[in-house]
From TrEMBL:
GO-annotated molecular function: calcium ion binding; calcium-dependent phospholipid binding; phosphatidylserine binding
GO biological process: response to cold; response to heat; response to salt stress; response to water deprivation
Name by which UniProt lists this protein: Annexin
A single GO cellular-component term on record: plasma membrane
Species per Swiss-Prot/TrEMBL record: Zizania palustris
Keywords: Annexin, Calcium, Calcium/phospholipid-binding, Metal-binding, Repeat
Length: 314
């Protein structure tokens, strides 16, 4: 499901570190060399390169990269080079320094990472920013958003396949009743969405569809401009069909007159080692255009080459 391509014979970590150092030296930066190394190493390999680079040259690799490259290319390389948990922590911190209810970054991270991964994000956030993630969410989000998002990111969900069918049936009825009364921020809705396992939630949503004749998200479209309802729909889509959720984020990022480089970079760098191949398939099916061609048409230069490398283009 990943699109990351790693060579069958990976050079020694010391050799990668040396080559990166050479890419930074001389009159100009060798961006192609940076891409050829970092865009074709997995998380463990990138972590080892960072450690070896710091030990050998007495400087953090990320600092050297920041000094040598810039713009969207810099952001893509830096995000990609970070450990996955550290990357998520950085992305969430960016959101809460410029909080607005329309952001879905926290929802993406809380609902598409496993419980151990989400716990690692909270640990990385604590170590990097000297505060807890929950603390920052509570300080910046307000009202119903705070009520929903703090428990959403604090969850450590059961990850197994077991489903309680009786509970799925009863909780589908609870969700329907609350939604019919427009009690969208009711404690019961928040309890169900923020504590149940993915398998249990999928069973509940299937029961909702079977019992009431349509998907739950259809009933959450009463007011298309309501950002809280949009957040609830995003949570459900992230659990039900993450590949289609991410496809839509990418499609909206490259549609229209301008490109939303932040969203495009975020999805490609966070999903290249996970399920970007499924997202590519969803994009092709939805738009009848390969994702690589769409990205190439909306980006340029080293930024384009970095994204295409992560998309698996040879």
């Amino acid at each position: 499901m990943a699109t990351l391509t790693v060579p069958s014979a990976v050079p020694a970590v010391a050799d990668d570190s040396e080559q990166l150092r050479k890419a930074f030296q001389g009159w100009g930066t060798n961006e192609a060399l940076i891409i050829s190394i970092l865009a074709h190493r997995d998380a463990a390999q990138r972590r080892a390169i960072r450690r070896a680079y710091a030990d050998t040259y007495g400087e953090e690799l990320l600092r050297s990269l920041t000094d040598e490259i810039s713009g969207d290319f810099e952001r893509a390389v830096i995000l990609w080079t970070l450990d996955p948990a550290e990357r998520d922590a950085v992305l969430v911190n960016e959101v809460y320094r410029k909080w607005h209810p329309g952001s879905r970054v926290l929802v993406e991270i809380a609902c598409t990472r496993g419980p151990a991964q989400l716990f690692a994000v909270r640990q990385a956030y604590h170590e990097r920013f000297k505060r807890s993630l929950e603390e920052d969410i509570a300080a910046h989000a307000t009202g119903d958003f705070r009520k929903l998002l703090v428990p959403l990111v604090s969850a450590y969900r059961y990850e197994g396949p077991e489903v309680n069918t009786r509970m799925a049936h009863s909780e589908a009825k609870i969700l329907h009743e609350k939604i019919q009364h427009k009690a969208y921020a009711d404690d019961e809705i928040i309890r169900i969405l923020t504590t149940r396992s993915t398998a249990q939630l999928l069973a509940t949503f299937n029961n909702y569809n079977n019992e009431f004749g349509h998907p739950i998200n259809k009933d959450l479209k009463a007011d298309p401009k309501d950002e809280f309802l949009a957040t609830l729909r995003a949570i459900i889509r992230c659990f039900c069909c993450p590949d289609r959720y991410f496809e839509k984020v990418i499609r909206l990022a490259i549609a229209g007159m301008g490109t939303d480089e932040n969203s495009l970079t975020r999805i490609i760098t966070t999903r290249a080692e996970v399920d970007l191949k499924l997202i590519k398939e969803a994009y092709q099916k939805r738009n009848s255009v390969p994702l690589e061609r769409a990205v190439a048409g909306d980006t340029s230069g080293d930024y384009e080459r970095m994204l295409l490398a992560l998309l698996g283009q040879e």
